[in-house]
Each structure stands twice: as structure tokens, then as C-alpha cells.
């Protein structure tokens, strides 16, 4: 181990007392995948013959999806494939393409197996391919990240262009090149399909996008209401140190404060392995957990701390469905779905979070109405009904653009 590595590890160990993580500064430079995508000049013109053959052949509405590379535990990919699954059930055909490409390309069979393994979805009749450059005609084309928006900007072999937006991605970066390159994509003229109503409103009011947002629900076969089986004060924390918007530092500082007042506190963390982080409380590290196991974990916690500085996570609704109580920071990025009847709302600071967790651990009887109303709220929303709205938006948009084309 060289001296630079020793120094870096020493600094990390000092910072890790409160969960701070050193992150590499992102560099957009020639030869990186994003740089190559942004600098590519290939245009994909409209194929009139393919359009007519598709229309005259009575084919169902078809969508091309351009998605990032897949990896285990990706909530964004889970939402993408859930949406594709429901749209497929509603009669829309989907073709999926990777935004990135490399020499070690995976086959369609391998990609299909990854979708099943990582996210639990069977693609059925939907297709999946490695290289977006092989895309052909589709009625609509959907980008799913700011990088893939630059691909769609040059792809014209479709009637309609959609932007599947799950968060306000410019906020993932400091003010600079990456911020402006990602924000620019909201000016490309695509229609927005957004995860949640806050994003739909933000993109419409600030960027003039036509948008349709879906509310969050949960998978009924995965999440079940459970009763806590012991009296141990226990809090779940959605811990993702390398995802800044999940406010790992604020959460761990708050839990340290709670443990000083309630030493018997147990904290269960999941979302990412945190085994190298020392804490001032008993911590059970669950790492990246299979979704099928999460409901039992939530139900055995008095509260579940799920922080988000940008768009709300899907976890709060899943927590409600499982019989626990959500603790989350306020702000309209979260309160479009959360309120004081179904969650405990806090300020964006560890002191307020700690004070409220301590209060409710000392007054557990006051958690009961929040637990009851949270479950009722979660049950009032279904993925099917929300996806029917999105399918309607897509169909109407494509029909409008077909009419404009006049052919």
C-alpha cells in the first residue's frame, strides 16, 4: 500500500465517523461514454416506408426505449421495467436498447435474463438489444436519462418523442458543465412522463414541457402489512452513502443523537453495504436486499427514515404498505405524496430529525394512527390505474402527431 493510499484511507476513516464519503469528481472528457454520446453526429432520419408498412399492417403501437446499462438493485431500472410491463399488458409493444455500447456486447438472451434476475420482470413479447444504433422505426421513442436524451435528439425515425423522467437530474451535479448539459435536455421539446406529480409540475412550469405524471404505488405480492413482534426501539434507514440526494450524512448524524438519548436503539440499514462505516449506535447492515425481503424488515421497525433532497423515493409507499411509519424531510419534492397524516415530516437537519424520532419512540402509541392512515393511503393507489393514465397519454400524443403528419 503506497503512502497516498494510506493517507486517503486515514482521511476516509476520520470522515466516516459521521458517514461522510469521499467521492471522485466526475470528469467529462474525450473517450468517456457520455462524451462520445454527446459528440456523436449520426442522425437517424424518418423512414417513410417503415412507417407506412407499420400503419397499413395494423401493428400495435410500438415504443423504442433507450435505457442505461443495468445493474442489481437499481430502483430506476425497476421503475422502467415495471412501466414497460404494464404498458405491454395494455397492448403497447416495447423494444429496449442500451444507451451505452462496448466490445463485450451482451446478447438479447443475456439481457433478458438480467432483467429477470435483477428486477423480477419477464419481458415476454417485448424485445431487448445491446446497441441503440440498431433502432428502427417505432411510433414513439422514450429516453430515460439525460444522456439518452442526446441519443433521442438525433433519432427522428418515430412519430413522437417521450422523456421518462424519474428525478431532476441536474441536481445530481455541482453547478457546472454536467449541470447545464443535463438541464439542457428539458428544452429538447420531448413530452415528459414523470415519476410523481412534483416533477410533472416542475418540468411543465419551468421548461414548458407537456407532461403526465404517475403517483407511486406498491407491488401487492411483495409488500404486506405486518405487526412488530418486540418492544426493541428500532429504526430503518435507507442508506446510500454514494447517492448524495439520499442525505446519508444528515441521517447518520441524527441517529447518533437518538442513540445518545435511547442507548438500546437498533438501526437497520439497507440500500448499499455500509460495513466499513463506524457508527455510535447498533447497526444491522442489510446491504442491497431483494425486494421480496424488504416488507418484513420494514414491519419490524417502529419508523423508517427515508430522506430525499430531490424527488421522493418509492420506499415511503412500500413502508406504509408494510405497517411501519415513514420519517421524511418536507419540501414539495416530497409532500406531493407525503403529509402529516401518513408520515412524520421533518426539517432538513439532523437535530429536528433526531428530536422527532426520540419523541415518537417515547410515545409509540402516537404512531398507531400514522400507521393506519399510511396503510389506507398506500392501498388507495394501484400501479395499474396509474399506468393506464400513462398509456392514455402516450396513445393520445402519438395520435396527435400522426394527425399533424397528415398521412
Describe the structure.
The chain is of the alpha/beta class. The chain has two domains: 33-215 and 383-405, 3-Layer(aba) Sandwich (Rossmann fold); 234-379, 3-Layer(aba) Sandwich (Rossmann fold), CATH 3.40.50.2000. The chain is 41% helix and 16% strand. The strands form two sheets. Strands 3-2-1-4-5-6-7 form a seven-stranded parallel β-sheet, sandwiched between helices. Strands 10-9-8-11-12-13 form a six-stranded parallel β-sheet, with helices on both faces. α10 crosses α11 (315-322). The N and C termini lie far apart (68 Å). The model is unreliable at 1-25 (pLDDT under 50).
Query: Using DSSP, what is the number of strands?
Result: 13
How do the helices and strands follow one another from N- to C-terminus? HHHEHEHEEHEHEHEEHEEHEHEHEHHH
CATH architecture descriptor name of the largest domain: 3-Layer(aba) Sandwich
Main β-sheet, spatial strand arrangement: 3-2-1-4-5-6-7
Shape: elongated
Any idea how many domains?
2
N- to C-terminal distance: 68 Å
CATH fold-level assignment of the largest domain = Rossmann fold
Low-confidence stretches: 1-25
How many helices does DSSP assign? 15
Please tell me the overall pLDDT.
91
Largest sheet: 7 strands, parallel
Kindly estimate the percentage of residues that lie in beta strands according to DSSP. Answer: 15-25%
